[in-house]
Amino acid sequence: MSATSTLRRPTDATEPPPKRIGFGGRLSRWDLRLSPYLYISPFFILFFVTGLFPLVYTGWVALHDWDLIMGQGEFVGAKNFTDVLGGRDFWKALGNTFSIFLLSSVPQVICAITIAALLDANLRAKTFWRMGVLLPYVVAPVAVSLIFSNLFADKYGLINSMLGLVGIDPIGWHAQRLPSHIAIATMVNFRWTGYNALIFLAAMQAIPRDLYEQASIDGAGKVRQFLSVTIPMLRPTIIFIVITSTIGGLQIFDEARLYDQFGRGGADGQWQTLTILLYEQGWTRSNFGRASAIAVLLFLIIVVIGLINFLVTRLISSAEVKR
Amino acid sequence: MSAVPPVPGEPLIAETPEKGRRTTGRSYTDRPGKVVYGLLAAVVLGGLFPLWWSFLVASHDSTILSRDAFPLIPGGNFLANAATVIDTVDFWQATLNSIIVSTVVSASVVFFATLAGYAFAKLRFRGRTPLLVFVIATMAVPTQLGVIPLYQVMARFGWTGELQAVIVPALVTAFGVFWMTQYLSSAVPDELIEAARIDGCSMIRTFWHVGLVAARPAASMLGLFTFVATWTNFFWPFIVLRSSNPTLPVALQQLQAAHWVDYSLVLAGALLATIPLLILFVVAGRQLVSGIMQGAVKQ
Prior knowledge:
Shape of chain A: globular
Shape of chain B: globular
CATH superfamily of the domain at 89-258 in chain B: MetI-like
CATH class of the largest domain in chain A: Mainly Alpha
Radius of gyration of chain A: 27 Å
Number of domains of chain A: 2
Helix content of chain A: over 70%
Distance between the termini of chain A: 57 Å
CATH topology of the largest domain in chain A: MetI-like fold
Structural class of chain B: mainly alpha
CATH class of the domain at 89-258 in chain B: Mainly Alpha
Strand content of chain B: under 5%
CATH architecture of the largest domain in chain A: Orthogonal Bundle
Number of helices of chain B: 14
Largest sheet of chain A: 2 strands, antiparallel
Strand content of chain A: under 5%
Number of strands of chain B: 0
Strand order of the largest sheet of chain A: 1-2
Distance between the termini of chain B: 50 Å
CATH topology of the domain at 89-258 in chain B: MetI-like fold
Radius of gyration of chain B: 26 Å
Oligomer: heterodimer
Order of helices and strands of chain A: HHEEHHHHHHHHHHH
Number of strands of chain A: 2
């Protein structure tokens, strides 16, 4: 009751309260107090049950002999971790993951900013062009991977044939390590460059136009304006995109899994990523303990990279303030 | 004398920068040259080409790639290949599963995210700010890495191979809650909620008649993005679903494992699985574009 009257006080304090006394009033007060918690509870319940609990429990599984079918075995301490870190698969997969990540994120940011700058021009049929660059986003990574593994086929592949036309010998896009990383990074870029270009475009349009006028009065040409006004103003957006793509990029699975029919990341693990290794250990070899150890290590890597990102961001922004 | 000219003059002065901003700070006649259009056309064609290529390959038979010349015009085999795809993997079942999973997940994410976003944006309660910070922080947590215990949980429930194993963990997302909180905090005037309360509406009725109605534009965008993300999702469905009851991406993986050498079949499958989202893109691509651009501004 008291809660209801607090609400009505500013508008019509003199009007007598409605006839909701006793039970109804108490109900209404509980309604007011508890409803917010009730409304946000689905997210928290779901997050704890299907997100946080499994993540924490992964650490527990990693300390045991644990089989997909047989379940929990003996407590083995750090053995799973030493096994993983002592083998060469983990380090190779780590290298592959980072290589693919760098090959996809760096060119992607550069291309996305360039495309955004093109879209930021005073275009006719703006929406058409914006939709045009976004189209690849609706193609599932799985489908993208099937298509590109054909384009990048070592034998009879379109890309090798095109290279042949200009006199370049066929490249082992599947057989060799770095070329396979380039092919997989191309798939990621194909799907996400246009999406990120639109994010950059929105950020560009939020830049105050008088900065450009000021720059052009100072005699800066278009290119100089782009480098000295646009790029610095886009820095927060660049950082945002780099951070979000780190979290996703280090867990890359779909594109690499379907790059050939075996899904193990190549005969010699040329393009085996950490999540493929995790899947292999967990579901192909039924070794949940070791798979969990890989998950924990990948989690730590993502946290460390996140911290580095955070520190670099802080450093840049404090340098900005000093200037 | 001094009072008269400013009156017509004022809107002119006020209008010029306004219009200038709309046309990105340049004059109307300053349309970009052919080079800009040419480059953009190259980007768009580059995005279309892999799909067109798949169609070329999928409309011939598998021997086309080993011949000397590449296909330049579509052949007449697409329907035959599509029919084989539909026969070899359980394509209709997979499509139906994808539709069920994506629809249920999108509807649920929209509802629960709007509900929570409404509470965070418009209701006063103890712990509101720290709880919202917690929600935002969870977006940076790679929960996908908890797949092993999650699989065990699903196995204990007897849900492995069942669609609910894919649906339930996705019923509401931190991003959705954050997105709706952002939108609702500016979209619903507090007075409107107070007015509804004074009229004797219960909290949930106020939400239903004021919050949910005001949330519609942002909710439909959230629904679209959730639909696309769920439709294209592979990692978890691949782990937890069985081959007899797949979603489309899982079915594509089976198709590839069974028919690797037959590119015409595999790419026909890739196209078939993409068509529903291409239709969605034609209908709602405009909204996807503005959703991305609005989300970016708010970050």
